[in-house]
Amino acid sequence: MKKIIVGFLMSYDYEKLKQSIPAVYGESDKIYLALDYEYRTWKGNTFTVSQNFFQWLKDIDVDGKIEIYRDDFYKPELSTIENDTRERYMLSLKMGEGNWFIQVDADEIFIDFKQFVDTLKSHNHFLEKPEANPVQIAGFLINIYKYLEDGLLYVDEPTKVMLATNYPNYKRARNTKERIIYTNNVLLHECLSRSEEELKFKLENWGHSHQINKSFFSKWKMADKTNFKSINNVFYLDASVWKSLDYFPTTNLIEIKSLVQNNSKLHPSKWFLLRKNFGQWFKFLGPFKKSNTTFESYFKE
Q1: pTM
Q2: Residue 190, in any domain of the structure
Q3: Count of domains in the chain?
C-alpha cells in the first residue's frame, strides 16, 4: 500500500497550520513540518514560535503522525526563491521514496483532501518508474484576498497550484517543470488574508519578494464589501493576473466549502481538464519530452 505523506513548510506564518493540518490529518499516514533550526526565513530574518503552538501540535496529533524536521534551510548565498526550492527538495528527501511527494503550504487549506487522495491513488501507476516518467499533480487555489468583519473577499478566478509529484526534481519552489496532470481539487489560499503588518512581513520574506508590485497595498487597504466590484487588477506581482474580486458572506470553512461546490466558476470543468491534460500529454511525448535534471546545484551542504 502506498502511503499518504504530506510535507508542510513551517515559518513565520505557522499559526496558519492550525487550519491546514486538520484539513489533511485524517487521510494522511505521516505529516512532516520542515522548520529551520535557527528559526530563519528564506531571506535570513528570524522569527519566533509560541510554545503554545507546539502544545497544540501535541494535542491534535492523537495518532502520532506529525514529525518536525529541523535542518539548515537558509543559505545566504542563495536568493529567497532558491532557498525556497532547496528546502522543498530537502523535505522530499526526508519524506522518503516510493510514495507521492505531497507538499502543502501553511496558508493552503484543502476543501476535500479525501478526494485528492483518491485522485492520487487513481494515478499510482506513475509511481512504478517515476524517474522515467515524472509528473506533477495540480489543483486550484481560491485566493482569499482579505478578511472582513462579516465575510471575506476572494479572487473570483482560481489559480493553478502544484500539489504533488512522483519525482521531486524541483526547479522553482514546488514546480518540477515536468508534465502536469490537472485535477478537480480545490483549496482555499490565505495568501493575503492577514493583518497589514503580517502581510508586509510575508511579502518581504517570500520567495518572490524581489518581484513585489509596490503599489498594490493601496488597493488592498481600501477594499471592502461595498467597493470590491470597482477594484480591478489586484495581484501583488503582475497586477493584471488577478482581475477582479468577489465576496463570501461568511468566514466559516464549512459554509465556504458549500458555496464553492455550488459555484461552477470556482472549480474547473471536465472539458477544461480534458483539454489541458491532452495538451500536456502531447507536449511531453516523444521528441517533445524534456530531459530530467536534478536539484544538486541548489542542494549545498
Answers
A1: 0.87
A2: yes
A3: 1
